[in-house]
Amino acid sequence: xxxxxxxxxxxxxxxxxxxxxxxxxxxxxxxxxxxxxxxxxxxxxxxxxxxxxxxxxxxxxxxxxxxxxxxxxxxxxxxxxxxxxxxxxxxxxxxxxxxxxxxxxxxxxxxxxxxxxxxxxxxxxxxxxxxxxxxxxxxxxxxxxxxxxxxxxxxxxxxxxxxxxxxxx
Length: 169
Known about the structure:
There is one protein chain. The protein is an all-alpha fold. The chain contains nine helices and no strands. It has helices spanning 2-10, 12-27, 41-59, 65-75, 77-80, 94-100, 108-126, 131-141, 161-168. It is elongated, with a radius of gyration of 24 Å. The N and C termini lie far apart (79 Å). The relative contact order is 0.07. Mean pLDDT is 75; it is low at 1-9 and 30-34.
């Protein structure tokens, strides 16, 4: 048992450095495809991590928590590494994690409300609309807006009040 810990600790700092490099790249702001950093240098680091994970997993019992953690990533390795070839692939899963935060709402009803809000915000962003400005404008206008023209308030058709008043003037 002590030997296993020693084996794991041998390359601990090197593996931490590798993970930090990859993680720093994942947190980099999204850019134009042509300006994206070359992530291929990370491939060597990740292959080292993969090899070490395989070797260590072979030494651990199947039920060991560390073996379970390594097996989790090893089974998903093909899904984990596409970011090396395509700079548009984001390594971070923050959007999914934010979506899961609805699991921690105090009730099912609160979770459904949070999910609806996340959906509205993401839809606005996907349509190039500032979610805060859009929601503020729509919430102000919706009560007086004709129901048969409600589609005009959807993010992909929305026109800010300022633009409408500028056209009218």
